[in-house]
Design goal:
Chain A is α/β, with parallel strands linked by helices. Chain A is 38% helix and 19% strand. In chain B, 41% of the residues lie in helices and 9% in strands. The chains are: A alpha/beta, B alpha/beta.
């Protein structure tokens, strides 16, 4: 049984996708040499410099060019080196890509995937650690996925490239080589917009994404020993949110803990909580709780500052324990 | 490899020069006499439609209009060097004349100003003059200036990767050339040697700001040199000169020689938009100077002097344009408005309704 990491899964997805569809091109900073996380290793050699190539350091310029290429019939995958560096491209993504289909009544469309690592735990400091899913989840016209497992990373990248609309594909950088599993062959497809129930339970629902999902599963293990039976829901996509899955988790347990690494205020957890409050209120036995990064600009570089920012299995277990006792 | 043609001082800062010569032998390769008549007619019609849009605004029939009177030679002359429906065109809000010359019909242009459901540009979603037309390969733009440059570079790149000899052309004002995306997009296109032509319609004003407030150089085309692409300056009120310069740029792009930054010096003889009062930032005298070198009058004079057209024929064409406009307006005014129930269509390929909060 081969254990595949998330990094390997994403790389092999690129290979399969680019072999299947010669409209797919890959661009970004340092991608020819494999990228800073080595995700694109070997792709230039296999597919050539026309389809895999380095761009000038100009996120707005090459993201905009990828939007144009997508309109022109290509299927670009853009790698933004760190999500922290994506902000110059927001004008292109929000003003142009997200609105192109809408404003042209479907005449022009942008089948574009923007892949980018996010998240902390690698001593990245303020500008190599941020989570920005909430920023994109606020933009109708985009889709935002954040796979937590190797199989999902692979399957969702296939789905993202096949999608006729722009997809922001967020990869938790600490999980690249930390999370491994056996990927089934053939791999069942995963549709964008579908959450996954990772663990069923009666007492508390932990709803999470990315690396926080794995911390949530570890917390659920701890709590099992205390006879607290946790359900763990992996959102996988944050735009659009899987409302039926969220509501079902809330109804089944009556107690909900939403966990994300992004800071609290304006985070995706607020949207999940609002959905539950609006549509599953009668099923709740406790106030909806959120565990998230603190409302400071970003996590610090020093390991102590970094760890103080991040949710972990213990802090999640503690929050879930309080909810269970409510 | 910058080849700067006809360097001229900044349009707004100095006003028109008196260097124009009526030259009966002037022509541009690829423009026949019939082409010249057709392009002049398009300039006349674009002018009339723009003027009518302002009237409709003042009559309360169009909440907002934005037009390009004065830019017609630049807009029509550049399109005359393109292969409509094959080349990609990414215009900006000033480009009524680009849309018309490319093939957008007066009916469609009037559907656009009335924001009707059948407007091919946007069906009433965008403000008027945000051009888009699938068949004409004219790609929708936003109101955010400068964003079209990287997108046009991407269209050129797609054509190159697909082995097509289509070129991509984008239009913007000189003010937009200060945006980062102008520089990033031009650099990207230069590095990849993409078949791109960037047409700068330099009218000397970014709404109220004169060029001297926008940049410390007289010619935007000088910016080409920094990226290793050709730069050219042309008298934007002279259709024949515009066509000649554009043809050189388009041919270079088609032959794989990379992008050109083509700066057309022109002037808008109307306010920025229906919400602007240009009396607060420029004199009537300056306006009169530029009216005296009106691009439509100049081509008409040439057509008469070169005996391509008689004065009577010119008048007939003007009357024909007025008639065409009347018919288009009547058609468009009676067309159906957008249905509020369509608010969320075309959000994604696979959905027609947005997520909404629902009370059980």
């Amino acid at each position: 049984m081969t254990q595949t990491s998330i990094a390997e899964a994403i790389q092999s997805a690129h290979r399969e996708i680019m072999r299947d569809d010669d409209r797919v091109i890959l661009l970004g900073e340092d991608v020819e040499a494999g990228g800073v996380f080595r995700i694109t290793n070997g792709l230039r050699d296999e597919f050539g410099p026309q389809r895999v190539f380095d761009t000038p350091l100009s996120e707005a310029g090459f993201t905009g060019a990828a939007i144009g290429a997508a309109i022109g019939g290509m299927r670009p995958i853009v790698e933004i080196q760190f999500v922290d560096f994506i902000l110059p491209a927001l004008n292109q993504l929000i003003s142009e890509a997200a609105k192109m289909r809408y404003r042209s009544l479907g005449a022009w469309t942008v089948p574009l995937v923007v892949r980018t690592p996010y998240g902390g735990g690698v001593h990245g400091g303020l500008y190599h650690s941020q989570s920005m899913e909430a920023l994109f989840a606020h933009v109708p016209g985009l889709k935002v996925v954040m796979p937590a497992t190797p199989a999902d990373a692979k399957a969702l990248l296939h789905s993202a490239v096949q999608d006729p609309d722009p997809v922001i594909f967020l990869e938790h950088k600490r999980s690249y080589r930390l999370i491994r599993e056996e990927i089934p062959d053939p791999l069942p497809p995963v549709a964008i917009g579908q959450a996954a129930l990772r663990r069923d339970g009666q007492d508390v629902a932990i709803i999470a994404t990315g690396l926080a999902l794995h911390h949530g599963l570890a917390a659920a293990e701890q709590l099992q020993a205390e006879n607290i039976d946790c359900l763990v829901l992996d959102l996988r996509t944050v735009l659009p949110l899987d409302k039926p899955a969220i509501l079902s988790a809330a109804r089944r347990t009556g107690k909900v803990l939403i966990v994300h690494e992004d800071h609290l205020t304006g985070g995706i957890g607020g949207e999940v909580a609002a959905i539950i409050a609006a549509e599953a209120f009668e099923h709740l036995d406790a106030p909806i709780q959120r565990l998230a990064g603190p409302d400071i600009p970003a996590m610090g570089y020093h390991p102590a500052l970094e760890q103080a920012f991040l949710p972990n299995p213990d802090t999640i277990a503690q929050a879930a324990r309080r909810l269970a006792a409510y | 490899m910058t080849t700067t043609q006809q360097p001229q001082p900044s349009a707004a800062s100095t006003g028109p020069t008196s260097t124009e010569h009526a030259d009966e032998t002037r022509s541009s390769p690829g423009l026949t006499k019939e082409d010249l008549i057709r392009r002049w007619y398009q300039m006349v019609l674009a002018r009339k439609i723009g003027e009518r849009w302002f009237v409709l605004n003042r009559q309360g029939k169009a909440p907002f209009v934005i037009t390009g009177q004065g830019h017609e030679a630049t807009q029509v002359g550049t399109v005359a060097a393109l292969s409509a429906g094959k080349d990609w065109v990414v215009p900006y809000y000033r480009d009524l004349g680009v849309a018309l010359a490319l093939g957008m019909t007066p009916d469609e242009l009037m559907l656009n100003v009335f924001a009707k459901a059948d407007d091919p540009n946007s069906g009433g979603r965008q403000m008027p003059a945000h051009w888009s037309h699938k068949r004409l390969r004219m790609v929708s733009g936003s109101s955010v200036v400068g964003t079209q440059l990287p997108i046009a570079a991407g269209l050129a790149w797609a054509a190159k990767l697909q082995g097509h000899d289509a070129v991509a052309v984008t239009y913007l004002g000189e003010g937009s050339t200060n945006q980062g995306e102008f520089h990033e997009g031009l650099n990207f296109a230069a590095v990849q040697r993409l078949p791109l032509v960037v047409v700068v319609e330099n009218n000397g004003y970014a709404i109220t700001e004169i060029q001297a407030k926008e940049m410390a150089i007289a010619d935007v085309a000088d910016r080409a040199q920094a990226y290793g692409v050709r730069g050219a300056v042309v008298d934007g009120n002279d259709l024949i000169e515009v066509h000649r310069a554009m043809q050189i740029a388009v041919q270079a792009a088609r032959r794989g020689h990379g992008p050109t930054l083509l700066e057309a010096k022109t002037y808008r003889i109307v306010p920025h938009s229906s919400d602007d009062d240009d009396r607060r930032y420029r004199t009537r005298e300056e306006l009169d100077l530029w009216r005296a070198r009106d691009p439509i009058d100049r081509l008409r004079k040439h057509l008469l002097e070169a005996r391509i057209l008689t004065s009577e024929q010119a008048d007939e064409l003007i009357a024909k344009a007025a008639e065409e406009l009347r018919g288009a307006e009547a058609f468009a005014a009676a067309a159906p408005d957008p249905d509020p129930a369509s608010l969320a269509t075309h959000l994604y390929a696979d959905s027609t309704t947005p997520s909404t909060s629902s009370i059980p």
